[in-house]
Amino acid sequence: MQPRRQPSPAPPPPPPPPALRPGAPLLALLLLLSLRGAAAVPEEPGQSQDAGPSRGLLQQAARAALHFFNFRAGSPSALRVLAAVQEGRAWVNPKEGCKVDLVFSTERYKAEESTFQEGEEGLGKCSARVFFKNQKPRPAINVTCTRLFEKKKQQQEDYLLYKQMKRLKAPLDGVSIPDSHGHIDPSLRPVWDLAFLGSSYVMWEKTTQSLHYYLAQLTGVKQWKTDDDEIDFDYTVLLHEFSTQEIIPCRIHLVWYPGKQLKVKYHCQELQTPEASGTEEGSAVAPTKLSNF
Amino acid sequence: MQALLVLSILLGAVFGKEDFVGHQVLRISAAHEAHVQKVKELEDLEHLQLDFWRGPTQPGSPIDVRVPFLSLQAVKVFLEAHDISYETMIEDVQLLLDEEQEQMVAAQTRALPLSTDTFNYAAYHTLDEIYKFMDTLVAEHPDLVSKINIGKTFEGRDIFVLKFSTGVTDRPAIWIDTGIHSREWVTQASGVWFAKKITQDYGQDSTFTKILDTMDIFLEIVTNPDGFAFTHSKNRMWRKTRSTTPGSLCVGVDPNRNWDAGFGMAGASSNPCSDTYHGKSANSEVEVKSIVDFVTKHGKIKAFISIHSYSQLLLYPYGYKTEPAPDQAELDELSKAAVTALASLYGTKFKYGSIIKTIYQASGSTIDWTYSQGIKYSFTFELRDTGRYGFLLPASQIIPTAQETWLALLTIMEHTLNHPY
């Protein structure tokens, strides 16, 4: 269970890492840290990586930053994925954790099925500072990205998605998105995008220096309420944690309205201990953990 | 309902050709005890030849009866006269039987690909369908392809390897396996495509013909049959084998942590519930041991390629230690050439390097063992994509994935051919 540091309803951005606050102590700290070993790794996509752990760390930081960015943007039509890390520096402090400054490019997360498209067009650019506290989750993130889409257009697309979702009836039980064959029904695409948005929050919080996640599948819809203005979406997903290769079921409950900050509650199942009951399909428990509600 | 229809057919066959043209099945609603009695009276009239599928018992319980064409009018008049409501469940029993017959025949013909030319490579298939494909391919190219049974899985399924050979005695060989992790569906699907591709290109493509004229190719398409069946029946995300572990309720061992190379060291889990559980000992998994025995017995495998998904990576040893492999430089250069060839088709970008540096520390992995056995060209692929769909790669991407991967495989095979050792 993670302690919540923000009980207030409006979710403030996470406090900037200590190193960002101005002052002489900061300078001293930076000098000290740089003496410890700053690894600057210029990165070109497609290159052979023999750069060791640094490259992996930069990737981790980029992913975490993007999850956080997507969550904070709160826009299911403007989701982004990592294209490539372009440059980065990492400072490792064995006592505190590590700080990563990086620049990376992004592309649009259009869950397109057809022949694989590597979109060179429409690449966005982000710069981020990510602070991983020693193997603890919920990295502190400061990230800014260039606009991929014109603000008005993004709002329109969100509103269109919103309208599509309002029209969807809730016979969404038993649904798996994508299905076993990787197919997503076009009418359910908005549901998937919204699920991905909520999952971004979860994946941001759970990412550490060594753990990173992908959204594998939406496995069930417990509730899909659209009668109020907001979309009230209670669902279960499977997250794929890469370094352990585990599949983690999570129950996520979100409330969304275009332009408003996304509200998310979630609960993920922990890995079973050796003596535990070996059910592969664990049912996700009702959310007990408050996040930014 | 189906069972009853089939039973009727059987009875018809036994008692001579009976047909059911114009017969109807009525569902009678007997609201009162009096109605039930009336229907029982009907039952006693043998000349009507009524066949009660659900007999009259008590008010409220539906009564289903098959009524021969000639008795229809009489029965309906009787029911209506006594104010007993009914509905027609089946308008024409024979029609339904004919449809069912058609479906059964169609299903059977669907199950057997008429030829590997009509097999759908752009779709994911079941274990049975893939095994049937293999038999069909062997039947079509008996001089080129044969099927070898290398063992039985934990749950008793056959483990098959296809051998492609233009020679008589065992030549130096290339080994390719797909599907060792069952949820990585694009790999088994690609394996099926590779099998077909080999039979198409031999004698057509000069480079490939040279390869197969000198070396044999072994292709194990479903390396983890139990796991694969499980991904179809119960859990699409299943990775491991399906062996049971005494003392634990958790099932399965990670077959890519079960090999005898750094077994049990950091880079695998000792928790049976974990997806990277290494098993109680090296080669404890019959799926792994079968390959170990085969490779050892063969003795002349020169390139060993194990195919996984996802991440778009080409990897070489080691996974369990950071120390560079003695052939690192050559493997690195060959990897670069292979991913370049791969990218030439659709622009798909692959990264490459040793397992431990490129993906993560992994102990007991396949190619660490094969490399330790002297198989210099030991590689692991991680195919499409990089996380957008992950294991649930859309079927529409199967063929492009297989096509581009084949170019990388050709690069490795050609290098192996030109650098005998």
UniProtKB/TrEMBL annotation, chain A:
<keyword id="KW-0732">Signal</keyword>
<keyword id="KW-0677">Repeat</keyword>
<feature type="compositionally biased region" description="Pro residues">
    <location>
        <begin position="1"/>
        <end position="20"/>
    </location>
</feature>
<feature type="signal peptide">
    <location>
        <begin position="1"/>
        <end position="40"/>
    </location>
</feature>
<feature type="domain" description="Cystatin LXN-type">
    <location>
        <begin position="37"/>
        <end position="154"/>
    </location>
</feature>
<keyword id="KW-0646">Protease inhibitor</keyword>
<protein>
    <submittedName>
        <fullName>Retinoic acid receptor responder 1</fullName>
    </submittedName>
</protein>
<comment type="similarity">
    <text>Belongs to the protease inhibitor I47 (latexin) family.</text>
</comment>
<dbReference type="InterPro" id="IPR049897">
    <property type="entry name" value="CYSTATIN_LXN"/>
</dbReference>
<dbReference type="InterPro" id="IPR009684">
    <property type="entry name" value="Latexin"/>
</dbReference>
<feature type="region of interest" description="Disordered">
    <location>
        <begin position="1"/>
        <end position="23"/>
    </location>
</feature>
<dbReference type="GO" id="GO:0008191">
    <property type="term" value="F:metalloendopeptidase inhibitor activity"/>
</dbReference>
<feature type="domain" description="Cystatin LXN-type">
    <location>
        <begin position="173"/>
        <end position="276"/>
    </location>
</feature>
<dbReference type="InterPro" id="IPR046350">
    <property type="entry name" value="Cystatin_sf"/>
</dbReference>
<dbReference type="Pfam" id="PF06907">
    <property type="entry name" value="LXN"/>
</dbReference>
<dbReference type="GO" id="GO:0005615">
    <property type="term" value="C:extracellular space"/>
</dbReference>
From TrEMBL, chain B:
<dbReference type="InterPro" id="IPR057247">
    <property type="entry name" value="CARBOXYPEPT_ZN_2"/>
</dbReference>
<dbReference type="InterPro" id="IPR034248">
    <property type="entry name" value="CPA_M14_CPD"/>
</dbReference>
<keyword id="KW-0121">Carboxypeptidase</keyword>
<dbReference type="GO" id="GO:0008270">
    <property type="term" value="F:zinc ion binding"/>
</dbReference>
<keyword id="KW-0964">Secreted</keyword>
<feature type="active site" description="Proton donor/acceptor">
    <location>
        <position position="382"/>
    </location>
</feature>
<keyword id="KW-0645">Protease</keyword>
<dbReference type="GO" id="GO:0004181">
    <property type="term" value="F:metallocarboxypeptidase activity"/>
</dbReference>
<protein>
    <recommendedName>
        <fullName>Carboxypeptidase A1</fullName>
        <ecNumber>3.4.17.1</ecNumber>
    </recommendedName>
</protein>
<dbReference type="InterPro" id="IPR057246">
    <property type="entry name" value="CARBOXYPEPT_ZN_1"/>
</dbReference>
<feature type="domain" description="Peptidase M14">
    <location>
        <begin position="123"/>
        <end position="416"/>
    </location>
</feature>
<keyword id="KW-0479">Metal-binding</keyword>
<dbReference type="GO" id="GO:0005615">
    <property type="term" value="C:extracellular space"/>
</dbReference>
<comment type="similarity">
    <text>Belongs to the peptidase M14 family.</text>
</comment>
<keyword id="KW-1015">Disulfide bond</keyword>
<dbReference type="GO" id="GO:0006508">
    <property type="term" value="P:proteolysis"/>
</dbReference>
<keyword id="KW-0862">Zinc</keyword>
<dbReference type="Pfam" id="PF02244">
    <property type="entry name" value="Propep_M14"/>
</dbReference>
<dbReference type="InterPro" id="IPR000834">
    <property type="entry name" value="Peptidase_M14"/>
</dbReference>
<dbReference type="InterPro" id="IPR003146">
    <property type="entry name" value="M14A_act_pep"/>
</dbReference>
<keyword id="KW-0865">Zymogen</keyword>
<dbReference type="Pfam" id="PF00246">
    <property type="entry name" value="Peptidase_M14"/>
</dbReference>
